[in-house]
Amino acid sequence: MTEVEIHGLTKVYHTGDVDVQALRGIDLVVERGEFVAVMGPSGSGKSTLFHILGGLTPPTAGIVAIEGQDLTKMSDAQRTALRKSKVGFVFQKYNLLPTLTAAENIEIARDIAGNSKRPRDAQFEEALKLLDIHARLNHKPRALSGGEQQRVAIARAIVNRPALLLADEPTGNLDTRNSDAVLTLLRDLNKRLGQTILMITHNPEAAAFADRIVHMRDGRVVDPHPEA
User: Fold this and answer.
1) In terms of CATH architecture, what is 33-56+76-222?
2) Strand, helix or coil at 35?
3) d(CA 51, CA 146)
4) Is 12 helix (H, G, I), strand (E, B) or coil?
5) Which end of the chain is more exposed for a tag (fewer CB within 10 A), N or C?
6) How does pLDDT run along the chain (228 residues), one tens digit per residue?
7) Please, what is the Cα angle at 52 between 5 and 99, to 5 degrees?
8) What is the DSSP string of 160-185?
9) Please, which residues have CB within 8 angstroms of residue 203's CB and are 6 or more apart in sequence?
10) What is the spatial distance between Cα 50 and Cα 218, in angstroms, rounded to a whole number?
11) What three-state secondary structure class fits 228?
12) Is 10 in a helix, a strand, or coil?
């Protein structure tokens, strides 16, 4: 079953008298339970694609649908509601609230989505076991290593069981050992729990953890090995 469907997606930014075309007709399909890495140099359009998929930025034209719901036909309020219920985010800089414990950082995502009164389900408890953060749940971010903070951020991203997990350079602030650990955890979440993941990365070693790699350049999806 298709989780994400993108057709003819374009995005133009207007800066004064200059139009900057960030996306130039992207076509991409991500199946449910697939782990896809999107690679490309700076300025290739990866971050714009990330923001549109997350409902953070409206596209200029085209279709982008999550579980059959077309974001391009939604109001800002509708995109916000979809983002809360259907999309989880993992960022390079963790984005944890420093005054809250790990557990509180996770629970705040439930509060925002209106799920705070629902019991956490068995799948999320299994995810916590995979992430191995039970012993650190009462610690604040300053008492956690970078790898532990990213594990908490991942737990926060999946607590509401989103249809799509978007990860933007999730190992960019981590050393090699912690990077491998976080990427292995993402792969385990994908394989053992069926979590659909789309990861933005410039690192081919990180991309190798995915099922499929999509290459972008100049706002387009490209063949990384075109025939001469």
Assistant:
1) 3-Layer(aba) Sandwich (3.40)
2) strand
3) 24
4) strand
5) C
6) 679 999 999 999 988 888 999 999 999 999 999 999 999 988 899 999 999 999 888 899 999 999 999 998 888 888 888 888 889 999 888 889 999 999 889 888 888 777 666 666 676 677 777 788 888 889 999 999 999 998 999 988 988 888 999 999 999 888 999 899 999 999 999 998 899 999 999 899 999 999 999 999 999 999 865 554
7) 125
8) T--SEEEEESTTTTS-HHHHHHHHHH
9) 171
10) 15
11) coil
12) strand
Which value, to the nearest 10 degrees, does the dihedral of the CA atoms of residues 107, 108, 114, 118 take? 10
Alpha carbon distances (Å) from 111 to 19, 73, 84, 131, 159: 39, 27, 10, 21, 11
Which ranges constitute the DSSP H helices of 113-209? 122-131, 146-158, 176-193, 204-207
For the chain, domain boundaries: 33-56+76-222
Closest CA to 221 of 26, 18, 8: 26
Q: Which of 162, 149, 166 is nearest to 100 (CA)?
A: 149
Convert 50-82 to b/e letters by CB count within 10 Å (16 or more is b).
bbbbbbebebbebebbbbeeebeeeeeeebeeb
**The two three-digit tokens of residue 32, written as one number:** 């449910």
Long-range Cβ contact pairs of 7-14 (< 8 A, separation 24 or more): 7/62, 7/63, 8/61, 8/62, 8/63, 9/49, 9/52, 9/59, 9/61, 9/62, 9/63, 9/64, 10/59, 10/60, 10/61, 10/62, 11/45, 11/48, 11/52, 11/57, 11/59, 11/60, 11/219, 12/60
